Amino acid sequence: MRVTLLGTGDTTGTPTVGCDCATCERARELDVERSRFSVHVRNDRTGESLLIDCSPDFRHQFLTQEVPLPDAALVTHIHFDHLDGLGNAYRLFDDLPVHATNVVDPATDESVAGTIRRKYDYLDRVSVAAHTPHEPFRVCGLDVRFVPVDHPPLLCYGVVLEDPETGAKCSLTGDTSFGIPDDSRAALADPDLLLADAIVPASSCEHHPQGGKHRNDAGVPRTFGSKHMTREGALDLAAELDADRTRLVHLAHYYPAGEAFAEPLAVDGETYDL
Ligand SMILES: [Zn+2]
Ligand SMILES: [Zn+2]
Ligand SMILES: [Zn+2]
């Protein structure tokens, strides 16, 4: 499978509109971008493509990256930066199956699949398939599983993608704190490529009203506030999961400019062949 990182930024992206911070300025100088989160996965055996999350930057991403339109999509959770690009499906597709989970979220009284059905009922070319977490299903010739992660107050899911022919495996943490349940960690383990939420460095926790948590033995917070992993948390998770390669994604412009473009922080347009 060929994995293309269409969007590697957080909800405001980098550069952030109207921002002249050193990190946004540096991104403009380097001519790199971190648009809102989305990943394109092409199955080279079948020629089919799967989109993971529907970024509000969908149009820009598909105009600037050399990837075909997807045959199907997955949605990890209902935050704006992961779902609201689905409106771009209007008039582009004859048929677009969208896969999401079926667990009713107490915070919304709806499952992720239910919210998508309700919000996009005007898109008659879009069909929504609801899945039970941890139960594999096949789409675009790949075996896919949603695994629960920790992104309060909403339900959110990581994604495990495996090619049943080649054994290639890509794991995505989704938006999550370091508090990922053990059975989800087991499902995400041993990937060829791990894409891990690392919104800010641990040093940023002092600026969060809730600080940080899930501290490691050295006292470094692996969770920023309650919703996302720090860089340090994401790297600890990558080590625990024994990932062959790791790219940090869902990155905010709050990284200091000197750290924001260092390895293994991703930028838009990176591709990986697994
Ligand atoms: Zn900025
Ligand atoms: Zn989110
Ligand atoms: Zn997000």
Automatic annotation (TrEMBL):
InterPro entries xref list: Metallo-B-lactamas, RibonucZ/Hydroxyglut_hydro
Pfam families noted in UniProt: Lactamase_B_2
Top-level taxon of the source organism: Archaea
Domain Metallo-beta-lactamase: 35-203
Name of protein: MBL fold metallo-hydrolase
